[in-house]
Amino acid sequence: MDVPPNVADLELACAASPADLHALLRTLHIRAGSPSYRALETHARNAGDQLSKSMVSEILRGSRFPGRDALVAFVRACGVPSGEVMPWVRAWEQVAETTRTPGGETADALRARAQAELADARQTAVQIMADARERAAAIVSRAEAVRGRPVSPVGDPVSIFRGGRRRLGVYPTDSSEYGEWPWVYRTGGKVPCSPTVAEGTVFFSSHDKSVYALHAVTGEQRWLIELGSHDFIFDGWIGSSPAVLYGTVYLGCHNGIVYALDSFSGRQRWQSRTEGQIWSSPAVVNKAVYIGSDDGHLYALHAITGDERWRKSTGGQVWSSPAVTEQTVYIGSNDGAVYAFDAATGDERWRKSTGGQVWSSPAVTEQTVYIGSNDGAVYAFDAAAGHQYWRYQTDGHVWSSPAVMGSTVYIGSNDGYVYALSCEDGSERWRYETGGQVWSSPSIADNTVYVGSNDGYVYALSCEDGSERWRYETGGQVWSSPSIADNTVYIGSNDGCLYAIDANTGTTTRGL
Fold it and tell me: What φ, ψ does residue 224 adopt, rounded to 5°?
């Protein structure tokens, strides 16, 4: 703030309860000109403090007694000079001491936390019931759309880029007895991102700046929504592959915004802005959305509200997509490092450097993190401590992300090969040469590796020896990575089409 707020008349020494302190803080906020939550967050960050929008909301609503650091950050962000902060700290200490319980937490804080958790649980229950009703309606609609054709069960949704939160690239083997109905759908721009299949629907984006939802069986459009503007070439591009959970589609856009869209209508539920373009694809775990941004940060957002839980800085732009286990988030950065952060707090657990920028996304097993680097190598790190197990060198940048099944890692390289490497020591088991660079990330189902290439083909290879089972020619480079469901390979191409290809025969039906 340019001019410090006038708070000389505030009787800080008389604060005797959390309610008194919250009233003083609200008065301070008003006298500071009622700055927005975003402005306070920015002022705090510029001063070296941590103050999220959700923390500001809790302070002003009085829903939770602030910690000492949060109070200091808020007061400073409101324009109180550093030399005049101590009276506020003493008021906080006085209130905290008189309201503290034997467990160390203030009574008001305990009560506020319980109320917040109850409200959160109620909101989640309402959302689950609404989703259940909409899913039931969608199943009826899907059955009517196929005009009497039997429909296989929805089953577990393939709800995230690379098939799951650990991004292993492995998809369940289909047990459908009804066969396939392949199709092709044309958009108004390239389709470099990867589709997501969930709730009987294929969700994907196009460089025409739109997000699509198509019937997974027929390819018929369910909804389309345009994001961003056309004022700048990148503004509305969507470099992020969607994640689908809680009846919501989550994805990032080149305008720097993370969107949450209703999966059945496409209507916007919330948006949260970062400070850079977004190429990273979100992971949604335990009501948290994890995603990277060109501003160099990994973000954790509340999945239902979009409020920021935390953000952590890396040393470069974050194009990699996070993989998440029960307690840890793993991600690469353009500073050349692979990071492990605590999923709940964002605290850094370890970082390990490679010899190039890391655009590849990690695949994480119980003990190992596998990832590629622009130095041309594939790495295996210890998931717990970050020790390097092995490194395998290819002859091109490795932008592709690994798939891991059994004892083998599958990955593409810009040298045009698809590689199968031993999980144990990184030794090569086989390699298959395509006709172009392999930016696409392999996906695995039914002992088959599916992958695209910049030669315009989609390939199906044997997991065991890399022999070609089939190839399908599209009309453009294939940067997209396949998603597999109901014996169908869903993949985009730079010819502007999304393809649904028979996983067994490599055929499709043109004409939509």
Answer: -145, 135
Nearest-angstrom CA–CA distance, 99 and 106: 5
**Beta strand spans in 343-478 (E):** 348-353, 363-364, 368-372, 377-382, 388-393, 403-405, 408-412, 417-422, 428-433, 443-445, 448-452, 457-462, 468-473
CA 107 to CA 299: how far, in whole Å?
A: 31
Nearest Cα to 179, choosing from 507, 511, 510? Answer: 507
Inter-helix orientation angle 53-61/18-31, to 10°:
120
Q: How confident is the model at residue 124 (pLDDT cuts 50, 70, 90)?
A: low
For the record, the structure tokens of 179 come out as 């066969």
Distance CA(411)–CA(390), nearest Å, equals 15
**Mean pLDDT, range 72-101, rounded to an integer:** 85
Taking 90 as the threshold, does the pLDDT of residue 135 lie above it? no
Give the span between the Cα atoms of 51 and 499, in whole angstroms: 45
Rounded CA separation 429/398 (Å): 18
pLDDT digits (tens, 9 = 90+) for 143-193: 544 444 333 333 334 465 555 666 655 666 554 433 446 799 999 889 998
Going across the sheet that includes 196-198, the strands are 196-198, 201-206, 210-215, 221-226
The reported pTM is 0.69
35-58 confidence digits (pLDDT tens): 888 888 888 888 888 888 888 888
In our burial notation (b when 16+ CB lie closer than 10 A, e otherwise), range 465-492 reads ebeebbbbebebbbbbbbbbbbbbbbbb
Mean pLDDT of the chain: 84
Residues 448 and 503: beta-carbon distance below 8 Å: yes
Q: How far apart are the first and last CA of the chain?
A: 57
Closest CA to 394 of 421, 415, 408, 369: 415
Read off the pLDDT of residues 234-266 as tens digits, 9 standing for 90 and up.
444 677 889 998 789 999 988 889 999 998 889
Yes or no: say if 512 and 219 are a contact pair by the CB < 8 Å rule.
Answer: yes
Query: Tokens 């599958």 appear where?
Result: 410
Residue 370 near residue 131, CB atoms below 8 Å: no
What's CA 229's distance to the chain center, in Å? Answer: 22
Higher-pLDDT residue of 393, 165: 393
What's residue 42's pLDDT?
86
Residues 6+ apart with CB under 8 A from 289: 243, 250, 258, 260, 282, 283, 299, 300, 301, 302, 303, 306
Can you say whether the dihedral through the CA atoms of 131, 137, 138, 143 is positive or negative? positive
